[in-house]
Amino acid sequence: MTEQQAEHERHRFERGTDGPKVIVVGVDGSDSSLRAAAYAGGLARRQGALLAVVYVQPVLAAGAALGVPVAQATDEIAEDLIAQIREAAERVKGIFEVRWEFHTFRGDPFNGLVQAADELKADAVVVGASEQAGHRIIGSVAVRLVKAGRWPVTVVP
């Protein structure tokens, strides 16, 4: 090994950064997504990582065409999720400190979480297990994220 190769190997890994720096968790208000957020919060606290809470606002073209106020409804869901997260963070303030951010993306849940994980440079993704029976046939968001193989994915029941 040359001196230059040895120098490159010494600088390949940083000390003290062996855990995730950014953990993305997908939330949609379902019980399983809120359990995933709680799990991801504990993981972020233990690792000293940033918790990026992501809500993907669905774009329902058919609903919008029929005059349904889809954007307003999904904005209200996002505001409610932020309020729940702030309330939970306030309850544990001084006991468990977690750095967190809330992000919204538009689209279908899978592509929205992929976009979020890419843009936020996620080291890990946490999602709740699907509560919909149809996902056994077509595949859940969690299964699709695992199959994408781009980040470690934790699926919380």
UniProtKB/TrEMBL annotation:
Chain ranges of the UspA domain: 21-157
UniProt xrefs under InterPro entries: Rossmann-like_a/b/a_fold, Universal_stress_UspA, UspA
Pfam families: Usp
PANTHER family documented for this protein: STRESS RESPONSE PROTEIN NHAX, UNIVERSAL STRESS PROTEIN UP12
Family: Belongs to the universal stress protein A family.
Protein name: Universal stress protein
